[in-house]
Amino acid sequence: MPFFFAPREARTTLPCPDCGAALDIRRTCHEAYMHCPACKKSFELSPFISRMDDAMENFLEHLYVDRV
């Protein structure tokens, strides 16, 4: 069985709705979410899907569907 590696987080170019800093997309074993490293707030993915950048798209391509 091949080893599958998916990163646990990636920096996007999407701005935080509260402070404007670049958001990270992160995952746990059960979910994926957006996180601001500046103001430390977390957000659901759904508001950002329509503005998805390359980093977010690449990150989501490597997740199991049940995490989104």
What are the SSEs and their pairings?
Elements: E1 9-15, E2 22-27, E3 32-35, E4 42-43, H1 54-61
Antiparallel strand pairs: 1-2, 2-3, 3-4
Number of helices: 1
Largest sheet: 4 strands, antiparallel
By DSSP, the count of extended strands is: 4
How much helical structure, as a percent, in the residues?
A: 10-25%
Low-confidence stretches: none
Rg over alpha carbons: 12 Å
Share of β-strand residues: 25-35%
Number of domains: 1
**Sheet with most strands: strand arrangement:** 1-2-3-4
Shape: globular
Query: Would you tell me the overall average pLDDT?
Result: 88
Structural class: alpha+beta
Description:
The structure is a single chain. The chain is an alpha+beta fold and 68 residues long. It has one domain. Helix content is 12%, strand content 28%. It has one helix and four strands. Strands 1-2-3-4 form a four-stranded antiparallel beta sheet, covered by helices on one side. A hairpin with a 6-residue loop joins strand 3 and strand 4. The longest helix has 8 residues, at 54-61. The model has no long low-confidence stretch (mean pLDDT 88).
Features:
single chain, 68 residues, alpha+beta, 4-stranded antiparallel β-sheet, 1 helix, 12% helix, 28% strand
Explain briefly what this protein structure is.
With 68 residues, the chain is of the alpha+beta class.
